[in-house]
Write a structure and sequence with these properties.
Largest sheet of chain B: none
Number of helices of chain B: 7
Mean pLDDT of chain B: 82
Number of helices of chain A: 5
Distance between the termini of chain B: 30 Å
Largest sheet of chain A: 2 strands, antiparallel
Low-confidence stretches of chain A: 125-131
Mean pLDDT of chain A: 84
Low-confidence stretches of chain B: 1-11, 204-216
CATH superfamily of chain A: Winged helix-like DNA-binding domain superfamily/Winged helix DNA-binding domain
Distance between the termini of chain A: 5 Å
Helix content of chain A: 55-70%
Strand content of chain A: 5-15%
Structural class of chain A: mainly alpha
Oligomer: heterotrimer
Number of domains of chain A: 1
Number of domains of chain B: 1
Strand content of chain B: under 5%
Largest interface: B-C, 38 and 52 residues
Chains: A mainly alpha (about 130), B mainly alpha (about 250), C alpha/beta (about 300)
Number of strands of chain A: 2
Number of strands of chain B: 0
Shape of chain A: elongated
Order of helices and strands of chain B: HHHHHHH
Structural class of chain B: mainly alpha
Chain lengths: ~130, ~250, ~300
């Protein structure tokens, strides 16, 4: 964990978003406390707190005073909607670029997509790039 | 940026020296003092018993010989306090000045304690000597009674002498710690000065180095000069300790 | 927030004629975990000794919680420096040492110390001189944790412990820090294990302050670019390349300095892998170049 150049709190936030999207964390699930997070991943508690604060701002998590952090209702849906918007630009544009370099036509790509869509296992999370 | 310090942290302010003193007295000095006498007195009793079997009449106090031990044993403990306890004291967050106060208070209390025990032992011994028909004389062999100047005067003299021994020990220890082996050894005579001065001041007509007989003919000015010497030595100790660096080279 | 702030200005200290610290101007914010890094002899221990009032600075000012700490009773008893030498009563049992520490440290939590001693399997009836190096280090760590001092500094204490003990120490430090926030300084020349625990990083080199700043900022000051040699070379042109490694046609270049994020994004889009430079590598690089410049 924590290989990328992003600040660690970004990476933590991204990992939690991934867990919410994949359903590993469901709505109203309690997430680990900053202390648990800090000791589990051996990071500074302030770093974990910063990630949580960011997720609270985004509406992914919410805080119950004296109890802890919970996944906000509708968090997965909201994240999914955001991701959908970014999906084509982030994932397919590079594919198209690379395909052009390799002399593959758009038809080749669509053919591939239609034949392989059913045989590829569903990913548990599509946010692994942060790890 | 300052932060509020919780109440318990300041409650003890300026009390470090009493905390150190009680630790030093309980864990260190009381035990060593009591052990010293628990060993010294039976040994003296045994020796005097053997001597008494072989000599017509004993003319010298046996207990008076333990003064050597009661002087030099706490002297060496005082050196140890300066050399090994001081760095631990400061490294655990206590000030040098609290060490100075605690160490001098230990010297004072242990000096008094030893003088009191030694005097009490001499009093008991005198009763035994009287019962046996022996002469309770000082250990200079002159046959002059130990208490010819009065019991209290004797006890006071012993206390000042024992205190001087420990203050010398403290000074010698701190010189070694502060200046290292070479200079520390060079300064050894200076560190011994308080003890030598107090001894000489009270030596009176004694012909040999026998400081504990000085009390027999001590003049008031001698006591005053001895006390002033000890105060000066205490100040010197404070000056050597107050900004002493605790070893930390990396 | 509890914890002492540290501030030094033009701090200098010499051992005789040998300068150990020169012109150190430094701020450590309260309530955070700070890393104090430097090679052996860089002055880490000396700096912490000044903060802990073991030595008086020859020049400059030192403020701990806004006050001069030297011979300042309320400050000194709340500043705890754990050194490898231990600073214990070596011929007294560990329990007696705990008594002593309770007397010396106003916030010392004895029950916590005892529970940690169980965790680390330290026999309270043993004497410090009978402990192995690892056990001594562990006891030092326990003393530092249980002192709850608003400024607690660990001088390479973890280096003496074996790997499982170190992990336990890190976990305990983080838990304790989360529950009882205070200012913590960890000094080391081995960084990889502690790097993510640090919020700020201060690097000393040959008695001088090389840099001091947020750990996150330091991270973004370097990157590794990995990919085909020609592509990598094209992207690192004009950047400060501090090292390259080649594996067949693949090259990994480590760059350092203020990096242009859009240039890095362009590198990514051309198929290069952009990675973080471990703090340890940055540290080695920084202290290496400085040595070369000096010599």
């Amino acid at each position: 964990m924590f290989e990328g150049r992003d600040p660690i709190y970004h990476q933590i936030a991204e990992a939690i978003r991934g867990e919410v999207l994949s359903g590993a964390l469901e709505e109203e699930d309690q997430v680990m406390s900053t202390t648990q997070y800090a000791t589990t991943y051996r990071i500074n508690p302030a770093t974990a707190a910063k990630a949580f604060a960011q997720l609270v701002d985004e509406g992914v998590l919410y805080k119950r005073r004296g109890v802890g952090m919970f996944v906000a209702p509708g968090a997965a849906e909201r994240l999914r909607a955001e991701r959908r918007q970014a999906f084509f630009a982030e994932w397919l544009d590079p594919v198209i670029r690379e395909a052009r370099l390799l002399g593959l036509s758009i038809t080749d790509l669509t053919d591939y997509l239609t034949t392989h869509a059913d045989s590829t296992p569903a990913a548990t999370t599509d946010t692994e790039e942060g790890r | 940026m300052t932060t509020v310090t919780a109440a318990p942290a300041t409650r003890r302010s300026t009390r470090q020296w009493t905390s150190a003193l009680s630790y030093l007295l309980s864990g260190y000095v009381y035990m060593l003092t009591l052990w010293f006498w628990a060993i010294a007195l039976p040994v003296v009793a045994l020796i005097m018993f053997i001597v008494g079997q072989n000599v017509d009449q004993v003319t010298t106090s046996g207990v008076a010989f333990t003064h050597h031990g009661a002087l030099w044993f706490p002297f060496s403990i005082a050196i140890i306090l300066s050399v090994t306890y001081l760095p631990i004291h400061v490294a655990n967050g206590m000030t040098r000045s609290s060490f100075t106060k605690a160490a001098l208070a230990v010297n004072f209390i242990v000096g008094l304690l030893n003088a009191a025990i030694a005097t009490a032992a001499l009093l008991v011994e005198r009763e035994i000597y009287d019962a046996l028909g022996w002469v309770h004389g000082g250990n200079d062999g002159s046959g002059i009674p130990v208490f010819n100047g009065g019991v209290l005067t004797y006890a006071l003299g012993l206390a000042i002498l024992f205190l001087a021994g420990q203050v010398s020990g403290s000074l010698i220890g701190i010189s070694y710690y502060r200046l290292g082996g070479w200079k520390g050894t060079f300064l050894l005579p200076l560190g011994l000065l308080p003890l030598a001065a107090v001894g000489l001041l009270g030596l009176g007509q004694g012909v040999q180095w026998n400081p504990w007989s000085w009390t027999a003919d001590i003049a008031p000015w001698g006591t005053v000069a001895a006390v002033l010497t000890l105060i000066a030595a205490g100040v010197a100790f404070h000056v050597l300790v107050r900004d002493i660096p605790i070893d930390s080279k990396d | 927030m509890t914890g002492y702030a540290v501030h030094t200005e033009a701090l200098g200290l010499s051992y005789g004629r040998t300068p150990a610290l020169t012109a150190i101007t430094l701020d450590l914010a309260p309530g955070r975990i700070h890393g104090l890094l430097g090679r052996n002899g860089a002055g880490k221990t000396t700096l912490m000794s000044v903060l802990a009032s073991l030595r008086r600075a020859s020049e400059g000012t030192v403020r701990v919680d806004g006050q001069d700490p030297f011979e300042n009773e309320p400050v000194m008893e709340n500043v705890c420096l754990i050194r490898e030498s231990g600073d214990l009563l070596t011929d007294e049992k560990l329990t007696t040492n705990l008594n002593f520490l309770e007397g010396a440290r106003p916030r010392f939590d004895r029950a916590y110390a005892e529970s940690l001693m169980e965790d680390f399997r330290l026999n309270p009836r043993k004497k410090p001189q009978a402990l192995s190096r690892g056990q001594s280090s562990a006891f030092g760590a326990i003393v530092g944790l249980a002192s709850r001092a608003p400024l607690t500094m660990f001088d390479e204490v973890h280096l003496g412990m074996d790997a499982p003990s170190r992990q336990r120490f890190y976990d305990e430090l983080l838990r304790e820090f989360a529950e009882h926030p205070r200012t913590i300084v960890l000094s080391s020349h081995l960084i990889s294990e502690i790097e993510h625990m640090l919020e700020t990083v201060t690097i000393l080199h040959e008695g001088r302050l090389l840099l001091s700043g947020e750990a996150d900022d330091l991270h973004s000051r370097g990157a590794t670019l990995t990919g085909p040699t020609a592509v990598v070379d094209r992207h690192v042109a004009g950047l400060q390349v501090v090292g390259t490694r080649d594996l067949g046609p693949t090259r990994q270049a480590t760059v350092f300095g203020e990096l242009d994020e859009s240039a890095l994004a362009a590198a990514t889009s051309e198929g290069l892998q952009v990675g973080a430079v471990p703090l340890q590598d940055l540290f080695i690089h920084l202290t290496d170049t400085q040595t070369e410049e000096v010599s």
